[in-house]
Design goal:
This protein has two helices and three strands; from the N terminus they run E-H-E-E-H. It is α+β, with helices and mostly antiparallel strands.
Length: 109
Amino acid sequence: MSQWLRRKRFCHLPPAWVRNSSVFFLTVCCAHRGSSQLDKPKVLAAMADAVEHYVASGKWWMTLFLAMPDHWHALASFQEASGIDKVLRDWKRFVAKSTGVTWQDGFFE
């Protein structure tokens, strides 16, 4: 793949002035855009259960979670703003194992 076609990696460490209770707008995409991996009832149910589990365990507070066919958006806050990357990586891994969804690396905030 040509260098200009490769997806850039972004640093996900919030600046020091961002408080832990801040709300972030997140976008997480499936590996194959346009693949409609997320529009199946079993996948949506598993994702909703995983969101609720992470809320109950205090890993994030979800204000909004909106699933589209090949990506999702959320308004979420985290116990530690510096831990967003790990929380999302673990959540995506869990959902992938239980549903077979393949995710792009990283996320956008």
